[in-house]
Amino acid sequence: MRDFENVTLTSEEETKRQYAFMERAREYVREKEQQLGRKLTFHVQTFGCQMNARDSEKLVGILENIGYTEIDDEHADFVIYNTCTVRENANNKVYGRLGYLSNYKKKNPHMVIALCGCMMQEPAVVEKIRTSYRFVNLIFGTHNIYKFAELLCRTFESDSMIVDIWRDTDKIVEDLPVKRKFSFKSGVNIMFGCNNFCSYCIVPYVRGRERSRQPQDIIREIEGLVADGVCEIMLLGQNVNSYGKNLENPMTFAELLREINKIEGLKRIRFMTSHPKDLSDELIYAMRDCDKVCKHMHLPLQSGSSRILKIMNRHYDKEQYLGIVRKLRQEIPDIALTTDIIVGFPGETEEDFLETLDVVQQVEYDSAFTFIYSKRTGTLAAAMDNQVPEEEVKCHFDRLLREVSGISARKAAALEGKVMPVLAEEINEHDAALITGRLDNNAVVHFPGTQDMIGNIYNVHLEECKGFYYLGRVEEDV
Ligand code: SAH
Ligand code: SF4
Ligand code: F3S
To answer: What pLDDT shows up at residue 2?
Structure first.
């Protein structure tokens, strides 16, 4: 199969090459549809983070380009799972669902099953699928997702399982088809990979080394999105604060934000995730100065104990973290703060846990994602022998969750009665007389309105806080 050989091409040449494969794949789909006398369907199931969600939009873009029709369950002719492996339960979900898929395939022999994403970068996972899930047709990883069209052709032309996993890549291929899930908002990758190696985390092993996209490619993509009706973007990277360090002409994330803020027609800019260790003053000032940048910072704490943070390899301590929070609030007084916290990291004691609770009480997060530590093979923490007993972890987890929920509820209720800017995003799913929009801090607001309001920002009086969302009424045009 010479035409599938890996040759070093520029990004533009690779894009062209993939479009040629899409053409070829389209032929297969057309032939199969003629043979079966019906349309071929597909379903993409996404696990994990926003990066995976964005990757799935790329998969959907290609599947639609070659002629498949999307359906929203797994009774499809082509099913692909875009997997996550950040915690053990993410993996278990995939194995569980694969069991169902084998039954579906028995009923529909034309069914093609594919697996991709972070979990596939783990050799043990691929081995398990090769031996125990032999009905899977295609496996690929995070580094060669841009070759999806090519891999589809290989799958259509082969009777055996196609497995193509790369250890890493330095390549970024631009301009392949993408089908957005939402018409009004979109994720935009600004960088890929991670170099931080926090000791509990598998992401650097499965997403490879950090690489930034060229600023002009990012801006061009956003301009295109805005022209297509997008008013809010979420800039995506495992650590956006180290954006641009390795570019030929280095650029900071703060500089990039200021450039993006100039894009006409764009209404809101969000970003994720910001690692506290390199959150610069320059970024705080850029957030303060840029009117389109949401006054919301997701600032993962992971632990409030300086001792644990050191073993986690996070490169900041409790005081430094609290210092950043102070500085953020000083420059941007009503900034919303959210976080991620891990409970039960190896060796975590009651005192360490109390330090975490202390930070939670001091910072008063608008919301916090709390996770039970999950041992990931290959990470430094997995080799540590002082794993915390399950009951102790569970007890700490429940205490933390209670604290975090109490604070979030108080913070949400405190906005009741206030007038806040809300971006009108879509017609309410249950009541067509209502618009569903979001505050800067991402909280949902329902208010009376009409289709023509979508994409605009309104000052909305938050009349009633319903816990996770608000009911409101427009005060005036902004
Ligand atoms: N790049 C982001 C995090 C990506 S993973 C950052 O540095 O903040 C999302 C979250 O999953 C992490 O913030 C962490 O809280 C959690 N997480 C990562 N590995 C984990 C593990 N082994 N066990 C439990 N939670 C984990
Ligand atoms: Fe994982 Fe740390 Fe990288 Fe975030 S910064 S993806 S937690 S290694
Ligand atoms: Fe999961 Fe991969 Fe994201 S491991 S959290 S999908 S980067």
So the answer is: 36
How many Cβ atoms from other residues are within 10 Å of residue 32's Cβ? 16
What is the band of 477 on the pLDDT scale with cuts at 50, 70, 90?
low
Alpha helices in 250-317 (DSSP H): 253-261, 281-289, 306-311
Ligand 3 near 415 CB (within 6 A)? no
Beta bridge partners of 470: 445, 465
Instruction: Report the separation in Å between the CA atom of 194 and the middle of ligand 2, taken as the mean of its atom positions.
Output: 6
Sorted by sequence, the CB contacts under 8 Å of residue 241 that are 6+ apart come out as 253, 274, 275, 277, 278, 279, 280, 283
Q: What is the pLDDT of residues 328-363, one digit of tens each?
A: 999 999 999 999 999 999 999 999 999 999 999 999
Ligand 1 midpoint to CA 147 (Å): 28
Residues 451, 289: Cα–Cα separation, whole Å: 31
Q: Is the CB of 242 under 6 A from ligand 1?
A: no
Q: How large is the greatest C-alpha to C-alpha distance in the chain, in angstroms?
A: 67
**CA–CA distance, 392 with 324 (Å, rounded to integer):** 31
| pLDDT band of 87, cuts 50, 70, 90 | very high
Helix or strand (DSSP H, E) at 117: strand 112-117
**SS3 per residue for 184-252:** CEEEEECEECCCCCCCCCCHHHHHCCCEECCHHHHHHHHHHHHHCCCCEEEEECCCHHHCCCCCCCCCC
Burial 449-464 (b: 16+ CB within 10 A, else e): beeebbbbbbebbbee
Q: At what angle do helices 11-36 and 148-156 cross, to 10 degrees?
A: 40
Ligand 3 pocket test, pick from 81, 84, 189, 239 with the greatest ligand atom count within 8 Å of Cβ, gives 84
- How remote is the CA of residue 201 from the centroid of ligand 1, in Å? 6
How far, CA to CA in Å, does 69 sit from each of 61, 117, 154, 212, 432?
11, 22, 20, 33, 27
Distance 335 CA to ligand 1 centre (A): 23
pLDDT of residue 4: 44
Query: 203 CB less than 6 Å from ligand 3?
Result: yes
Q: Which residues contact 293 (CB under 8 A, 6 or more apart)?
A: 257, 261, 268, 269, 270, 271, 286, 287
| Dihedral sign (CA 102, 103, 109, 115) | negative
**Chain mean pLDDT for the chain:** 94
Could you give the CA distance from residue 365 to residue 360 in angstroms, rounded to a whole number?
7
Distance 373 CA to ligand 1 centre (A): 9
